[in-house]
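Entry type: protein chain
Record version: 2
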Amino acid sequence: MTAAAVLTTALAQRRERPGADLAGSAPDLVAAAVAMARRFRSGGVLHAFGSDDADAHHIAVEFVHPVIVGKRALPAVAHGATRAAHRLRHASPGDVALAVCGAQAPPRVRTGAVAESGAVPEDEAWVAGNGPVTAALAAAGGHGLLTVALAGRFWTGPNVDHLLTLPADDPLVLRELQVSAYHLLWELTHAVLEHGPDGPTP
């Protein structure tokens, strides 16, 4: 087997297990989509934000400008992470807050050497990068919004209504899973609006 073939096989295997685990998250994805669809039926707006602002804009565009002919546009707005908490405090309690959170390293024991060196432990670095996101989720939950978070398996943020923990240790694989997950949420939300337990949306 050539070196290129070995590398290609290794890369495929790195994605295979997390991808299968994403499929195993189907019940959680459906439950979140049902809850989101109910908010949309009642006139709710989707507020998207995350540790990477590009995700927020991507999600908002997906909902507002559906790529599948015949799908209705759903109200959505993207927020930069640094302003999301402030804006969500003024959102309607009937709205939806959807956050895409960055990868987090597993918790580790603090050592004197780390403290003396001034180095920032990986979990503290995650908090620094995701602090605005978790603050926004807390603000949204406190204001009555439906909260949905797409996060890594070492989530340490606030309690949310629907936590979709995606089991990838590699931050790049996690990002791929998150993008897949919010596309699935979009499709499932439309399926529920059209054929769900509450009947089709007028």
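Comment: The beta strands are 46-50, 76-78, 96-100, 146-152, 162-166.
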